[in-house]
Amino acid sequence: MALNSDRNLVAILCFRWDSLPTAHTNPSRYLHVTTLTCPELVGCSHVKFFKMMCTKILTLLSSHPLRRIQPCFTCFTTIQRDRRDYSTVPLASGCCFIKRDFQKQRKSLSGMPHYGVNNKRPFSLSPAGIVNAAPASVQPYLRLMRLDKPIGTWLLYLPCTWSIGLAADPGCLPDLHMLALFGTGALLMRGAGCTINDMWDRDFDKKVSRTAMRPIAAGTISQFQALVFLGGQLSLALGVLLCLNYYSIALGAASLSLVVTYPLMKRITYWPQLVLGLTFNWGALLGWSAVTGSCDWTVCLPLYFSGVMWTLIYDTIYAHQDKEDDVKLGVKSTALRFQEHTKPWLSAFTVAMLCGLIFAGANVNQTVPYYGAVSAVALHLARQIYSLDINKPEDCWKKFASNRNLGLLLFLGIVLGNLWKRNDSQHDG
After folding, report:
1. Average pLDDT score over residue span 355-381
2. Mean pLDDT across the stretch 16-22?
3. 193 CB contacts (<8 Å, ≥6 apart)?
4. Distances from the Cα of 26 to the Cα of 55, 275, 397, 421, angstroms
5. What is the CA radius of gyration of the chain?
6. Where are the transmembrane segments (predicted)?
7. Is residue 115 part of a domain?
8. Structural domain boundaries, residue 92
């Protein structure tokens, strides 16, 4: 940005995309440092314009598609007056270089992304790509419902698929209409749950680096806007629920209290993951009732219990990412409850989960492929727990995300096991 051609003052802001080190980014702090760094700008008629443009840039970048943004910019400044270069002052979040240093920094900046006016990000069919391609005014709402991070939707949806698959007639595939309907409902209810969570936790999220750029915490969406958006999501979810039978409508409505109160549990108990399990696995009950008209509790309860144990496994792993911040904020979790004894607890939950799956399968006359899938689930969890490093957030995330594959593996076993029943019946005939 050329500010004064007579004095040859040039300031270029180059943003580095990295993890956010602080809870909030204060543009005025950086602008103030920049003004001090460039003494020629003091008293210049273009200072107000410069500050206005920088504020707009930083505001735009605060809602950028990337989840974690660090406006840790490097300011290259050329200041010449009477053929004399002014010395520069290091910025708090970067460095300031005079013109002769530019060539030295070019190589280090070659790998940095450039978001110029004419740059166009390639379109991607991935969830993050779809969100990035959405209009800028819509993107904060899509991020609020975590559309760019579908792992939570998968973990909510998969217990529904297990239940729908187990409820299918022997030798038949699961009801595809029900699978699609529950997929839509999972997307909407997960979004509503995230919105409620962020509304409750807005003050906490500002103080945690991983969550500081969530739309409500970052200020890109107000509390009122989030409330209106929540009403829209719940209305659409109600429309999905009304497509089911009356028994399922009543059963589905009963879960709303869990959805609303779960975010508060981390303030009062070390077992919020248990409440999350009760909430996230409600579909294990609802899927069966949607297909058959009521719940067979000899199947639904063991399946529901297994889902709750599964949630305790993966969400305890997830909670280890934030345990240091949780201690500072006074937030509770099973990660803090178990600490170094996490692996024995996870192993116990694994055994309980497998027992529930075996019991549910036996009560619905499941066959060899199902029990083969349960065995594969056991191996997956054993490897996951054995190799887990609870002190490495990146490893915790990797293990947590792998549970989507575990859930899909079990669903495949249920489908194949159900199809195997037809072969058994034909053989008996």
Report:
1. 96
2. 38
3. 259, 262, 279
4. 10, 36, 29, 63
5. 27
6. 151-168, 180-200, 236-262, 274-291, 303-321, 342-362, 406-423
7. no
8. 2-109
